[in-house]
Amino acid sequence: MIQISRLSRTDWFGPLLATLIAITVIQGFNDNFLSPFNIQILLLAIAVNALVAFSQMIIIAIGQMNLSVGAIGGLAAISFVGAMEVWGLPAPLAVILALVIGVGCGVLNGALIRITGISAFVITLATLSIFKGINLGITEAQPFYGVPDSVKSFGAALLVGPIPWLAVPTVLVTVAMWFMLRRMPVGRFILAVGSNEHAAGLSGISVGATVIIAHAVSGLLAAIAGVLVVARLQIGQPSIGDDWLILSFAAPVIGGAILAGGHVSVTATLLGVVIVAIITQALVLFSIDPFLVQVVLGAMILAAVGLNKLRARQPVGKGSA
Amino acid sequence: MSEQKAIFEARGIEKAFPGVMALKGVNMTLMPGSIHALLGENGAGKSTLIKVITGVHLPSAGTLLLDGTETQFSSPRDAIAKGIGVVHQERNLFPRFSVAENIHLEQLAAGYLKPINYSALNEGARPWLEALDLDIDPATPVSELSVARMQLVEIAKALSLQSRVLLLDEPTASLTSSETERLFTILRRLRDGGTSLVFVSHKLEEVQEICDRVTVLRDGANACESRSMDGIGRHDLVQMMIGRAEGAAAWRHRDTTGQPEVLGLSDVSTSLGHKGVNLSVRKGEIVGLYGLVGAGRTELAKAIMGKFKVTAGKVQVNGKAVTIPNVASAIHDHGLGYISEDRKSEGLILQHSVLANAGVPIWRKLAGRFGALRDKRIHDAVLPYLQKLEVKTPSLNQTVANLSGGNQQKISVAKWLAAGVQFLIVDEPSVGIDIKTKAYLHELLRELADAGTAILVISSDMPEMIALADRIVVMDDYHITGEVTNSGVYDDISHAIMGLIHDAEEDSGAVVPLKEISV
Amino acid sequence: MTRHIQAIAMAAVLGTSAISAAQAAEDSLFALIPGGPHPYFSAWEQAGADAARDFGLAGAEYKVPQKWELAQQNQLLESLLSQGYNGFLIFPGDPVGAVSTAEELSSYGAQIIAGAGCYKDPSPAAFCLGTDTGNSAYIGTKELIKAMGDGEKRIAHFTGFLVDPNTQLRIDAVQRAADEEGATVVQVIADIDAPEPAEEKINAYLAAHADEVDGIVTTAWVPAVVAANALRKMGDSGIKMVGIDHDEVLIQAIKDGIVDGTMLQNPYGQGYIGSFALDRLRSGCTVKEDAPFGSNALTDKFIDSGTSYVDASNADSYLEAMRAETEKLLADFESTYLSCS
Amino acid sequence: MTIQDINSPPGATGGLSRTRFFLSNEFGLILLIIVFAVIFGLSARGFLSPFNLFTLGRNSAINIMIGLSMMTVIVTGGLNLAVGAMGVSAAMVCGWLIEGLGVPWPLAILGGLAFGAALGFINGWMVVRTGLHSFIITLATMSIFFGAMIFLTRAEAFRDLPAAFSAFGKMKFANYLSPLLLVTLAVAVALAWLYRATLTGREMLAAGASPAAAELSGIRVDRMVILCHMLSGGLAGLAALMLVARNGAAIPSMAGQLGQDWLLPAFLGPVLGGTLLQGGKVSVLGTVLGAFLVTMLSSGLLMLQVGAFWVQTFLGLMLLVAVLLDKARRSYLARRNLA
Question: Is residue B287 very low, low, confident or very high in pLDDT (cuts 50, 70, 90)?
């Protein structure tokens, strides 16, 4: 009994329960849900969305917000394809270029926030506009089509069974994130700064460096997500990243992240992404009136978060520790 | 001992903040193998001096010497590396991190990417916990500890640095007497090992017990500089701190038995776990509610105010049974008031002005047609009380956060004076308050009671209780364990009170309920 | 009141011409304004430049609102008017909501033509030069049904943003065509005019229902591209598809036999002829009362800029085909629709 | 620094309050507005033409109103991501009342505003009852409100509104003043009065600054939070109705997909204007000036013809420069003051 109550207090328990219930129910109504092809489709969606969510999660961990996640991802995506199409760079070099751009954007965010002392919300609002503007300025809203076959086949290839190659970078990133936040000083510092910036400074942590590192990681993850989207869509759409913002917050928050900072969970965030993906797909599978999709999605987010809250709520007062 | 060379010296330290000169050329010399008291009233500059010494603030002028050579600390990390450790007054732990990790955070900062070995970390933390007789698993998250234990972990963290100079800013504020004794044993051991310790406390008894040298600050300057404690008595210390002799008015007997009851609780239980609480406060009476931290006193106060639910029993105001649905109703409908122990988060709205803070409870009374509020009216209504309490502020538009702790406390009292409530709960009135303000506050509470206000004072400071209360009600573990009528004789009363809670303290040992944490 | 406004307009024009003396007040300075950044309209840029060169205009510039947003478009139009532009080819951000701004532009003497999409009557636009979205979807669906041949005819329809009223017209048109041919529309997926949701939803749908669908019709740019890619990925699925517009991916898929065809619209022609007509209107021509306008759900002054169905047989030469269509329309445009004194 | 000082009346004039004004966000914004106005006036043709000034006023009227709507929730330390969705829903209700039920338009406007406030009540009530951050609640209700609106209207606009609407939107006073701007300014003045000199406004600020302290001082914090959200809903509805007047129709797409297009103007005004995101401090004038500055910047950039696709980059850069300049100015003044 103690085991279960302990388990139920972890961040990932609620989302996991919700995921399992959702899978069971949907599978019960529609046999195709767990078909290999459908699992593959789900994994493709999750692969990208998880990176987007992590990109925001790391900033939530330091108690800030990064509104420019989508703009960085979009910029990295079109730089990736643009470099291959216009300059003829080989794909691996173009990937590196895109990631460097992502990190650069992140460092810029972090440095501006740190040097000016202006809230991250305002800075990333401005850089959102700048990054997106550069994207539009370069592309003039036209997609780049010059995606080489190697990238296309990577985007379409399967590793084992229904598991696409695209999921591999995401799995690696997930493990790395978990390791960083659990086992590496830099991850602990990020959480410490998010929990109490003042105390972190007094404990000898360089708050400035930590904030900049967190933003660099965020930029890197957004850039990886951008590159993966290109591999998946097989074109360099300038609009990549435009609708990442809501998802990027929804998943960590469903996963129990505290917006004030200091507490995030990689596993629960991943499950948050899974839940959103399942819901989105279920709405299509059940042929729900397209006009109602948004309503259901909003209600589902509310329900998931509410469930989480209910679980986390403990009796107040005497004896609660 | 006098032959030894100073391990650390601060010379002519000045520190200016916008609008304030916090330190005006302060000197302090620290000797190895000594415990050095740093005293002063709130706002005298103790904490600022500590922050300069530990690299949090850069001094505007003056020099710091380590082993006789001039040095500069660019950051707290730099100071730590040079052997200066500190336990700050405010809590600096990360609640979700384990005890071991909190203790070792400084060491981890050496490498950003080197994976953490948690078992080594736990092993490394154990000796320091054992040194403090702390029987906790180093892997426990700090959030699961009691306040007192958090304080001890913080000290363990400082010890683990094995600093040559260790500064402790009010380390005993939330410790029980036995925990304090244990701490002192360790401090003495460190001293004997050659460490130079700086001890800051408002409790002069403790200072006299453990310190051998003393520096006193007054208004950002030295009132006495690094002299031996030999031959200095309590009165001398007080005189140096406040610039004149201590003049606390003594307890006097007041008879209020004939007065009508203002607040009465009979068999009250609350949603927080209070059971069968009986309490009665008469007009003009000061009733003390004594208990240790975690006994459920603040919670009872908040339940009376309508913040938490009363689940059983009867609450009477002026003899009439009432149900108080929320705090607003308690204040506006029943004339009850509550001065929180936690000024910064519950007592005051720090980012608002003095005027706004002092006026909150009377806004409703002063609002005119369409709810219009005029600053002039609020100003006129609160000014007399602010003046009476000698609040020092450049203007009433000053943000409260910029004022000293003592002035903040005065404002949080003044707003209830202005509100003119008939029943006032005062929770830990003298936490973080200097001697002068404390004495003044006591006098004020007596005056208020004489004028007819019923007062419930919550305190875990026995001398304060005995100086103030007419009757003392003792609470332990969410129960009222008994009542003592105050005779003003310290030894008798303290014995009686300790007798009422002694047994309970013995067996509650391990986990103290944790409702009074304020983060 | 009108005199008043004219005076202001004069003052504005004079003021601006004083600043840039290079620009004579008589010159025709046109702007071609899409609803927002979208690849469909990119042909307008070349069309405007060509028209400016061919007809001696001071300029016919392609100006794009930063976002697909009515407010952005309005702001851009207002700004361009203040800068002295005097003719506009506009894709209305909303058929009704955009009328108000158009009236303002027109009250300052600017000429307006609706391009690619129409204003709802009454509006100050001289006419609407575009593709009948409903009709295009209708023809596309008919072609799809033809391609599906005999057997079951279950159609999935992928389309754009629900907030775009054209989307409802398209949904209705596809339904109508299906009803006429005895086919059924088994699924409509909307709100997928952005690549990622399109990718996610279309793939999810095909994953679950690929064996319950015989044909796909797409009536928005992005879903067409994504669906073409999805079919390519699935290999031999037996699903027929008709797309829309001329994205490279789609054209390639047609050449490769994965997609059966696409409904081409004629953005270049809209831009080129639109600029020409604006210039004629400015030099005193008026729209003929009895011109042979078509009509659609929004307006009775509709001119079809040409729709054509492209399949594998003409996928290589569709550009020439559209140019020829444009030439043909231009040849007797003035005599058919305008009366010039 | 002595006790005598507090005898001077509140808001006393003199050196202190004057420096305080120069240190304020509002002054910084006024400075920036003047600087940019001069730059644009000299370099962009047509910027100072009456029509451009008219449209500038009209556009900023709507942006300011959106900013004010967000501001009222920021006061509580929360955010309202659903401003757009609520505004559009309110406008659609107003359109439906007129076209569907034949309600006279003044009543319909009131109905729309009330509906906006009702949606705000839902947000506020959920925030209070669940204890979740308003960010999450409004993230979900944004989807729900907008989705329900799209579902019920089938994305069809209400287009046959009385001519009074669009006439109001196109009306000009003295050639370049839009009545919409007057509406906005009136609302701004009312809000300034609310926060400065009424019980409700003061209690809202106190509840936002420190909920715990406010509650123990006798303020019904939960009611205040709900009230702030209702106010936000009402103002969002008003902003949407102003857009209806401007467009002559109630269009579901007027705030973009899910109403997200409003988010940028909604945040820019209050944030530039010095309203604290933590809550408890508000600057109505700052919000007005901030929203105006942003509207002017984007209008000026269009005028300068920097190339349509680069406008967004320049807008972002200028915002950054504006914020940095302001920061630099204030720290310079603070330093000089200290010396």
Answer: very high
Beta C59-62 vs C29-33: how paired, if at all?
parallel
- Report the range out of B321-330, C305-314, D170-179 with the highest average pLDDT: B321-330
Q: Are A198 and B92 within 8 A, CB to CB?
A: yes
**Which residues of chain C lie closer than 8 angstroms to D254, CB-CB?**
70-71, 94, 97
| Token pair for B76 | 């707290």
Contact check, Cβ <8 Å, A204/B80: yes
Mean pLDDT of D193-214: 92
Asked whether residue B516 carries a pLDDT value surpassing 60, the answer given is no
Q: A: neighbours with 3+ CB pairs under 8 Å?
A: B, C, D
Domain of residue D126, CATH code: 1.10.3470
CB-nearest partner of B144 from A201, A202, A321: A321
For the entire predicted model, the pTM comes to 0.82
Give D117→chain B minimum CA distance, Å. 20
Distance from C-alpha of C11 to C-alpha of A214, rounded to nearest angstrom: 56
Q: What residue ranges define each of the domains in chain C, with the CATH number in brackets?
A: 2-131+266-306 (3.40.50.2300), 133-264 (3.40.50.2300)
Computed over every residue of chain A, the mean pLDDT equals 85
Judge: A142–C42 Cβ closer than 8 Å, yes or no: yes
Return the higher-pLDDT residue of B74 and B283: B283
Please name the member of D8, D210, D219 whose beta carbon is closest to the beta carbon of B328. Answer: D219
Question: How many angstroms separate the CA of residue C237 from the nearest CA in chain D?
Answer: 34
Q: How high is the ipTM of this complex? A: 0.79
Return the residue in A182, A188, A202, A217 with the most chain B beta carbons within 10 A, the one to mutate for interface testing. Answer: A202
Render pLDDT for D54-75 as a digit per residue (tens, 0 to 9).
989 999 999 999 999 999 999 9
User: Could you tell me if residue D22 is inside a domain?
Assistant: no
Q: Which residue of D has its CA nearest to C9?
A: D51
Asked if A211 is an interface residue toward chain C (Cβ–Cβ < 8 A), one would say: no
| Main-chain phi, psi angles of C319, to 5 degrees | -65, -45
- Give residue limits of the domains in chain B: 8-242
DSSP codes, A250-267: HHHHHTT--TTSS---HH
Q: What pLDDT does residue B90 have?
A: 76
Buried b (16+ CB within 10 A) or exposed e, B169-205: bbbbebbeeebbebbbebbeebbeeebbbbbbbbebe
CA closest to A45 among chain C residues: C200
**Per-residue model confidence as pLDDT tens digits over C14-35:** 444 334 333 333 578 999 999 8
CB atoms within 10 A of CB B388: 13
Q: Is B221 helix (H, G, I), strand (E, B) or coil?
A: strand
- Domains of chain A in sequence order: 10-311 (1.10.3470.10)
Q: What is residue B419's predicted lDDT score, i.e. its pLDDT? A: 87
Partners of C167 on chain D (C-beta within 8 Å) are 155
Q: CB D141 to CB A291 under 8 A?
A: no
Would you call C237 exposed, middle or buried from its count of C-beta atoms within 10 A (0-12, 13-18, 19+)? middle
Number of domains in chain D: 1
End-to-end Cα spacing for chain A = 19
Q: Tell me, yes or no, whether D222 lies in a domain.
A: yes
Query: Nearest CB to C188: which of A239, A281, A290?
Result: A290
Report the residue of chain B nearest A205, measured CA to CA.
B109
Q: Is C215 on the interface with D (CB under 8 A)?
A: no
Q: What is the DSSP string of D168-224?
A: HHH--BTTTB-HHHHHHHHHHHHHHHHHHHBHHHHHHHHHHH-HHHHHHTT--HHHH
Q: For residue D307, what are the domain limits?
A: 48-331
CATH class of B8-242: alpha beta
